[in-house]
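Re: weekly structure request thread

Next one in the queue (222 aa):
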Amino acid sequence: SDLDLENSYYVHYNNTFEEKKRLCSNRRPIVILIGIYPYCIRFLQVIKTMWEKSIIFPDILNAIKYTLSILVAISSYYSKTFEIFEKTWLLIAAFSSCWSYCWDMKMDYGLIQNGSVNPILRNDLFYKKRWVYYTAMVLNAMGRFAWVLTISPDVVYRFIRPEFFLMVIYMVEMCRRGMWNFFRIELKHIDLCQHFQVSDKIKLPKLSDIKELIEKLNKKEN
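Done, posted below.
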């Protein structure tokens, strides 16, 4: 943005005007490399998992998710330079967000279970209130599609400064990922219970019961 460009001039004070424009711009190749690096790493990790397990499904769907994220980053980077990317960026971004949202709900949250006693959820729910899951589904969708606000920044900037707007977008994504942790861990625990690796039926003894048991054992020894 123009604001970032002006502030960046102070850092590159001794450079020429053309050098300042180049160094302070987000059009440098390093920007796109940094943008796609995390997705490339996750894509390779998924491919490695498929190779080790010799099973393609459902990890192939996750690999497609990261492939779409890479395409979104590339098309967004070149959208201001090449007209073809400007026309396709929105389509790829919308499809990628829908794909990622479906993966979140079905695979990471374990929801949308066929024949569930809880409509569009799953049979095993560790949180007592079902509205928690419905709320999470809505909030996750809002987080996945928060990028839509960047399509018309001039409209948004009438109500909020650009730097604060970006901070809000980043905070929304941070909250979405934090919420994801709770439901992903819950689903993993349910999976472990189903495979009898852990149990949620056995309650831990109270401290008073433990002390009473120790006293009885000490009396027997004496």
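The CA atoms of residues 94 and 186 lie 28 Å apart. Confidence is low (pLDDT under 50) at residues 1-12.
Next request, please.
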